[in-house]
Amino acid sequence: MNTSIVGTGVAVPPNVVTNQDLVKIMDTTDEWIRSRTGVRSRRFVDAGTGTSELAAEAALAALADAKLDALSVDAVVCATMTPDRQTPGIAGALAHLVGLSNAVVFDVRQQCAGFLFALDIADMLIATERAATVLVVGAEVHAGYLPWGDAWEIVLGQSTREPSAEERAVATRYRAWSVLFGDGAGAMVLQRGAVHDTAASSGILGSVLHTDGAHANLIEVPGLGSLQRPYADAAQISAGLQHPTMNGSALYRMAVECMPEAVRQVVAKVGLGLADLDLVVAHQANDRILEGVRKRLDVDDAIVPSNIGNWGNTTAATLPILYHELCQTGRVEAGSLVAFTCFGAGAHWGALLYREP
C-alpha cells in the first residue's frame, strides 16, 4: 500500500511585482531578467506577514481539497528557508494556526530541496505506520531578504518618487539573485493508498536523496550565524552578510547534472525507464536550468513544465505550487507517472517517483 497524494493547495500573496516594477529601482531591463531567469513577475506579502501565515493558508486549502479536517492529521512536515524568525521554525506556528492539535510536527531545512525531502519523510512515516495522514508544506517569504529598503514603496506602487542614488546602487548590486525570488506556499495531504498489483502500483514508488556538503557554499547566507561572534552586529549588516550569495555558474552546472541523474536513478530503481515518464516536476530555480534538465533527459517542456514566469523562485514552495497547477489543468491523469526533482543549498538534491492512482 503506497503513499498517495489526496489533496493539494497553494497560497500566493496579493502584491504582484513585474520586471518593469524592478526597473524603477535598479539598473536592469525586462529583457535582461527574462532572458536570464524566465521570470516575468512574482508575488510578495505585505510587511508583517510571516511564512507561517502563507503556510497555514496553503495547508487549509489542501485539507479542503482532500475533504479532511485538521484533527485527522497525524503529522506535519514543513519545509522553509525563511522562517518567521531565526528560531524556532514555523511548524509549530503552522500547527497552531490550522488547529493541528493531534499532529506531531517537523521542520526541515534543505532549502530549495526541502519539499522533496519532506515528501520522503512523510512517505516513511506512512510506510512505517507511524502516521496515517501527513500534511507536507513548503512555504517561503523571501521579501525580508531583499535589499530594497525604503524603495519597497516604489516597487509596490505606493510611491511615484525616484529612488535615491544609494538605493539604486544597493538594489543593482544584488540584482543577479534578487530578481529571481517570490513569496508563496504549497501543501499536499498524503495518505496510505489502496492495494494494487505490483505491475500497476500507484502512489510513491521510490526515491533517491543525496547530499554533498563539500558544495555547501554554493548558496549561503554568510552572516548572522554561530560562526559569528557576536551572532549579529552592525558590521555584518553593513557588509551585507545577511543577504544570500551564490556561485551562479557552479550552481547551474551541478543542478543540470544532478537533477536529471537523480531522475534516471529513481526510475531505474523501480524498474522503469525515462520513456515511461509523463511529467518531471522540477524545482523552478531558473528557466535556463530547466532547459538544461530537458536537454539531458532528451524531453521537451511538455514533460518538464515551467511556471517560474508567474511566480519566480519560491524555493521550497515551487514543487507543490507547480504540481497543484498541473492537477488543476488536467495534466495529471489517472496512471500518470511523475518524477519530482530538486537541487538546493547544502548541497541537497534527489528525485521521487509517483504514479497518480
Task: List key phrases describing it.
357 residues; alpha/beta; Peroxisomal Thiolase, Chain A, domain 1; five-stranded mixed beta sheet; four-stranded mixed beta sheet; 13 helices; 34% helix; 22% strand; globular
Would you write up a description of this structure?
- Helix content is about 35%, strand content about 20%.
- With about 350 residues, the protein is an alpha/beta fold.
- The protein folds into two domains: about 190 residues, Thiolase/Chalcone synthase (Peroxisomal Thiolase, Chain A, domain 1, 3-Layer(aba) Sandwich); about 160 residues, Thiolase/Chalcone synthase (Peroxisomal Thiolase, Chain A, domain 1, 3-Layer(aba) Sandwich), CATH 3.40.47.10.
- The protein has a five-stranded mixed sheet, sandwiched between helices. It has a four-stranded mixed sheet with strand order 8-13-12-11, with helices on both faces.
- Helix 10 packs across helix 11.
- It is globular, with a radius of gyration of 20 Å.
- The mean pLDDT is about 95.
Major sheet summary line: 5 strands, mixed
Rg, Cα atoms, Å: 20 Å
What's the total count of β strands? 13
Q: Which structural category fits the helices and strands? A: alpha/beta
Mean pLDDT: 95
Distance between the termini: 11 Å
- Structurally, how many domains make up the residues? 2
Number of helices: 13
Biggest sheet, spatial arrangement of strands: 1-7-6-4-5
Binned, the helix content reads 25-40%
What are the segments in which pLDDT stays under 50 over at least 5 consecutive residues? none
CATH topology label of the largest domain: Peroxisomal Thiolase, Chain A, domain 1
Report the sheet-strand fraction: 15-25%
